[in-house]
Amino acid sequence: MKPEIKALLSRLPKVDQLLGEPEIDALLAAMPRRLVLKAVRETLDRLRSRVMTGDPDRPPDLDRAAVARRAAGLARELARPHFRRVVNATGVIIHTNLGRSLMADEALEAIESAGRYYSNLEFDLEAGRRGSRYSHVEALVCDLTGAEAALVVNNNAAAVLLVLETLARGGEVIVSRGELVEIGGSFRIPDVMARGGAVLVEVGTTNKTHLADYERAINEQTALLMKVHQSNFRIVGFTQAVETADLVELGRARGLPVIEDLGSGSLMDFSAFGLRREPTVQATLAAGIDVIMFSGDKLLGGPQAGLILGRKDLVDRIKRNPLNRALRIDKFTLASLEATLRLYLDEGTARLKVPTLRMITADYAGLRRRAARLKRRLEPAAAGLAALVLLDGQSQIGGGALPDQDLKTRLVALRPATLSVNRLEAWFRSRPTPIIGRIENEALVLDVRTMDDRDFDLVVAALSELKAEAGE
Ligand SMILES: *Cc1c(COP(=O)(O)O)cnc(C)c1O
Known about the structure:
There is one protein chain. Helices cover 45% and strands 17% of the residues. It is an alpha/beta fold. Helix 4 crosses helix 5 and helix 7 packs parallel to helix 15. The longest helix has 21 residues, at 33-53.
């Protein structure tokens, strides 16, 4: 080891010395000692390796107070929950990485109550004996959708697995080649099929599948005909897919159940708001499908869940599958799902109170006003730091719903004057409440569609802190 590096290392303060520093001492009163110790040791480790690998003529500040300040910063970081709130300024409404759907106040109150108090989770209050956890939402789901029976499991991936395992294990399931999707997080139809013990029979081609393709593939081994929503992609051009109603007719004629993985099933018809028409859950059931599955936290705007709806005899078999016990939902899901579904009893209410629906149907004029307000509020802090521009742009629904749907929005773009746009983005992302935007054309853009007006305070504070830091 070079003597100058050795000399630098000997200047590093000792753990005990740092613990005696006022800044660290104050932290010991405010947070668990083990967190403070961990931060101190880790800070020293990091400095040691920087000294050993860095330029000895430009060493880090090894002054005891400076090291203590570093360690205190790390300790405060360690004391914050690792799982935390962020501001979603990406404009992707159902952002799987950022927690998908936000929940309505009514759903949050239901969760709070389910956590704070005992409940009739599995207790029949009328009969005074054991009840079923599924009874709380089944009637409501059926009432809203026209389904005969319903079951809710952990998520839609679980729903698809459970349905296949119950209705098709050991048999063949016919699916169009154009619908063999992969959703993020390694959910792939062929793999789920294999896990469910069913044999996938692909029919048609990537771009075109005809009813006759399904018809020809039917044999004594066939257990199901299945449709899968393309979700996160779209095939355009010379294409053809078989309508649900036609597939249902074929299934009826051959005595085979027809099921559909709707992915991001919606109870609301968004075409009234100028969006592309997508078959709703109700319309798919009305077309005569035997069983459908969809997510609770995509377009529905509720908690993570997988809803299974359809024919009573089939849903009853699915309920009795022992795998169902392993995939069952917890009381928080149940409470918030019921509260969310209740909002749908009046579609106007759902549109205003379910955040996912509110964000999707937000009108451009309102977004424009809100973006202008955010820009105005950022102006004092931005002076000399970044140019602020209002731009038109596109939001995305996300969650594999309507992937090519244009959703015109208004963006606030921050074009930094001195630091790089990557540094600016990282600064926002490293705040105690991280702010996640996106980089476009050398600017950090913030989409107000996915932001709450209360988020604006956090964005203004983040920029002000950056200005203070830069001024130092
Ligand atoms: C999203 C999606 C799934 C998985 O749903 P999760 O609720 O995330 O488990 C399955 N199939 C399709 C078509 C989807 O879009």
